[in-house]
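Posting this for the archive.
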Amino acid sequence: MLSVSSRALFGRRFVRHLVRLTRVYWTSPDALKGGLLFALTVALELGTVYGNVLLSDAQRRIFDGFQSKQMAALSNAFGVFLGLALGFVLVSTYRIYVRQTLEIRWRQWLTDHYLKQWISSQAYWQIELHRKATDNPDQRIAEDVRNYVASALGLSLSLLNAFATLLSFAGILWRLSGDWAYDFRGSHVHIPGLMMWVAIIYAMITSWFTHRVGRRLVPIQFDRERFEADFRFTLVRFRENVESVALLHGEDGERRHALERFQHVVGNWLQLIRAQRDLILLTTSVGQANSLVPLLVAAPGYFAGSLSLGSVIQTTIAYAQVSGALVWFVNAYQEIAQWRASIERLFTFTEEIDSTCADLQRAEGIHVERQRDGALRLRHLCLTRPDGQVLVEDANAVIKLGDHVALLGPSGAGKRTLLRAIAGIWRFGRGRIELPEESRTMFVSERPYLPIGTLRTALAYPLPESAFSDQRIRDALQLLGLDALVNRLDETAHWEQQLSGSEQQRLALARVLLQEPPWIFLDGATSGLDEDTEKRVYTVLRERLPQSAIVSTADRSSVAQYHERRWTLVPHGTAMALQAA
């Protein structure tokens, strides 16, 4: 597992990752609209800074009106302040609204990018099956993308606000404290822009202490997301297998397993709150102490009569703005740490996908090619495990449309691996698999995947639910003895929990009848059926899809009788050999 504990908060690696992640959206077709929204957000952000400048001057006028006891001047100052406050509220509100609009567009594009990387190239399968170096990719796409985008906008705009605030109020603070003079041990001391220097020195000291105290947060935040996702996945896994757990009376084991995962969450949480406690103690102390600094420095001038009450108030406001801008790093440190962890998790995810795809491209492995002659051929096919151990060696065979082939052999001989190789998701080995050009294939496994949704959606998968008429769907269900489901097409349910194993297998076979693929591969797809139902399934397939080729793995002899041809895996030295007949 990657560790970030020894890495600097900002370094070359961080900058490289940040640039690459940011480039994904800002070089996309949506970048123009995003750029316009960002420009508007920046304008509104600067508008709030300018509004703060005007409001600080209006407050000075109000307090000067109180001091001079002039009702007309005070009323005018109140009117100006109320008008400015209304404008400030509107600008601040739309600043957040526009930023959130940009945030969801950016997140939407980045999420689509990662889904394409993870799913479209089948990287999800290769990573899960062979590498297993990336934990919880679903959580990285769902939560780390969200955190990255939200913090990227929030931190960049708050930094812009801090910089604009510094530029706007630095001149005011310098001017207000430019003529302050103090008697120090009999000497007349004059420091131009005294309050500005105080703010700079204070910010430098507190930023250094904040980084020293808070840098532990980065690795803690990195691990926090992983432990939370691991615990959540354990609960989801239990929910998806409640029947199996109940049959095995495995409740105590599941509870222990969940609590073991949760203990990692607890341990990480204790680390996090201790680190946050230390950081909050520091930042809160800094904030409270900093609020007194301008009053303490300005008090001698006010008591000497060289400063009005309004000037003291405006100096306090200007100092607060300048100091707040200078200690931006202090105030944003926790979010920076979380953002840094999200970037690291997203980029390690990207690296894993890229590495997996590159390994597959470099590998000499099995080549799956498309040919025009309408047949499926295995040419000197050798299947190996990821560690190089040979499973099947030098397999040569051919299937044509209309052929029915039973794939026989002992358990663990490599039947399922052979079907995976034909599907193109098992690349370990060598040789060539030739498939008919532009010919659809359909693989049905022993435990078919049924998406949560309407029954119509589960039947049409992976096509849209509107792909087939109600009558065609009803006919397919009735042919396979699923009459009880005919009136439940628009019912939404978790079908893997609602239906028995036999019903799930027949539902998956109903998909085959609906989609009519010319090449059908059944991997234990009738293992949960009784002999009469199994015979009915193969009779229906033969009658309804007479031109389709069917390849069925068989662990029992009853399956073989429905196929005219045999592919048999037999021991040959330390591996298996394929005998085609």
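The chain has two domains: 12-361, 367-580. The longest helix spans residues 251-303.
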